[in-house]
Amino acid sequence: METIVPLLEIIRRLRGENGCVWDRKQTPSTMWKCLAEELYELEEAIVKDDEDNIVEELGDVLFQILFIMEIYAGSGRFSFERVVNTVADKMIRRHPHVYGDSRITSEDGLNKQWDAIKAGEKSGSGISERRSALDNVPGGMPGLLRALKVSKSAVKAGFEWDNLSQVLDTAVSEIREFDAALSMGQDAAMLEFGDILFSLVNVARFAGFHPETALYRSTSKFEQRFRIMEASLEKQGLDLKQMPSEEKEKHWQAAKQVYAQKKS
Question: Which residue of 134, 164, 229, 244 pairs with 255 in a disulfide if CB–CB is 3.0 to 4.6 A?
Fold first, then answer.
């Protein structure tokens, strides 16, 4: 706890009588939005493997969490110690193969043990028994993350494809259905487009990588290529908006080549 004391002192001064007006008026709900933004900035730093930025963003995330905890502690709701002790007890309880006599020989066995312990915690806490494997999926999660969480929860309940080829076939089938739905109105097309995205989330899951990370990297690649093209067009005094499609494609391909050379 000694290492976070300076941060706690800063937060308490900011929220104190002679502190900052903005900090004093914050609530857990308003600070959650700040925390969510910092989490995405941390994700970007981790994906880029930018060590200095990772350190900075980890600090920002830690500060936001401590800020929220201090709001609750300051209002007398609960203490820091309760938060720390609760998660410490939970982690020890959920790792009996480390802290107890349980013997696990596979990752599948580890996951089953984890789920069984979580289920036991729910039943022993007075919380009503879950009626669905999807009851633990938060409704407010971002779309891709929620789709992945729903998919993983369904898999844990036994609903899964046999191989990646089947998942790919599903994605191709959804694209065909989307094409057919385009003539049926926006609502039908939108639903089928959502099915495409959901099936591709499962393709990523089955292939062993996170769809959010894949999308981030692809978006970043597009952004860098587009900036290269923009700079090239500016040097030539060309206007992208006034350019025919064939000419746009030529400049785009040139930008892709420059990007590839920079990466090689």
Answer: 229
